[in-house]
Amino acid sequence: MAELDEIIHQPLRLKIMAALNALPAGAPGLEFARLKKLTGATDGNLGAHIETLSKAGYVTADKAFVGKKPQTTVTATALGRGAFARHVATLQDIIAGAGGRP
Amino acid sequence: MIDSEEASSALAEIKTIARKVRQSTIYQLSSVNLIMWGVLVFAGYVAIYFAPRTALWTWIGVAVVGSAGWLVIAAMQRRRAKVQTFNLRVLAAVLLFLAFGFFVVLLGHFRPHQIAAFWTIYFMLVYTIVGLWTGTAFVVIGLTVTALTLIGYFFVGEAFNLWMAAVNGGGLFLGGLWMRRE
Fold first, then answer.
1. Tell me, what's the pLDDT at A2?
2. Is any Cβ of chain A less than 8 angstroms from the Cβ of B7?
3. Which of A7, A62, A75, B13 has the most CB atoms less than 10 A away?
4. Is B16 in contact with B154 (CB distance < 8 Å)?
5. Alpha-carbon gap, residue A95 to A91, rounded angstroms
């Protein structure tokens, strides 16, 4: 059985990756404010975990200005999508291995 | 390594987040259309209040402009968000919906206020039913506009078209703004 991805498995990072992977591939990512609302995280916490995912190459965080307001858009990379898919498959294997249904 | 209970909990969390993303995406995509139709419907009812004889051409104009806007918005959303909100099946559903509505109005020999009330409630029925799958906002908009339409039909009298401008047009517009926030 494959190992769980320890970078993704942290609760808030799991939510971030789940949110980004719910979008179709190639679609623009999620704005920071929207991710914050979806995950229920604080600004600092969310920023720190996005940084961790970014260093792992799982997401990109693009900063731009919309008018005069800075906006950060977080997008899952192909590497990140693959890692998330494997992580979900591992979770399902753990459940199946215990005789349950994912 | 984690146990199956923790794994189940993690998968449940993933499903919850995915459902929230889908709902907020639907709201975001729908909000633009609601705002557009809200403005057009508001303008239509106000125009009919001041020039009732132009009702047919006014609504034809609203339908043409609104449909064109709907196609433009769908094209932009497909390009930007990689989400297809319009296809032939949607078009067929809309045409069948409209055809049934026209048959009912024709066979029922509706008077002007009855036509206005019927079409509004008919559209809001779709909002309410769709909302059972896509999100509460649609249900709230559908039921609220329906209730206010009925109040206007039975109690407002000659100012009915102005009432509908506020209720139907305003309801869609405010509903669209609410969805953008959600």
1. 65
2. yes
3. A7
4. no
5. 6
Number of domains in chain B: 1
Give the best residue of B3, B5, B21, B84 to mutate against chain A (max A CB count within 10 A). Answer: B21
Is residue B159 situated within a structural domain? yes
Mean pLDDT of the region B154-175: 95
Task: List, as ranges, residues 65-104 from B with C-beta within 8 Å of A.
Answer: 80-83
Contacting residues of A for B9, CB less than 8 Å apart = none
pTM, entire model: 0.80
Chain-chain contact of B17 with A88 (C-beta, under 8 angstroms): no
Residue B18, judged by CB atoms within 10 A of its CB (0-12, 13-18, 19+), counts as middle
Q: CB burial class (10 A; 0-12, 13-18, 19+) of residue A69?
A: exposed
pLDDT of residue A100: 63
B12 lies in some domain: no
Express as a percent the part of chain A with pLDDT over 70. 95
Nearest to A94 among B7, B24, B25 (CB): B7
Q: What is the ipTM of this complex?
A: 0.90
B165 and B116 Cβ atoms separated by less than 8 Å: no
Residue B10 within a domain: no
CA dihedral B22, B25, B29, B31 (to 10 degrees): 110
Asked if A19 lies within 8 A of B80 by C-beta distance, the reply is no
pLDDT band at A80 (very low <50, low <70, confident <90, very high): very high
What is the residue range of B70's domain?
Answer: 17-181
- Within a domain: B11: no
Determine the distance in angstroms separating the CA of A13 from the nearest CA of chain B, rounded to an integer: 11
Nearest to A95 among B7, B17, B81 (CB): B7
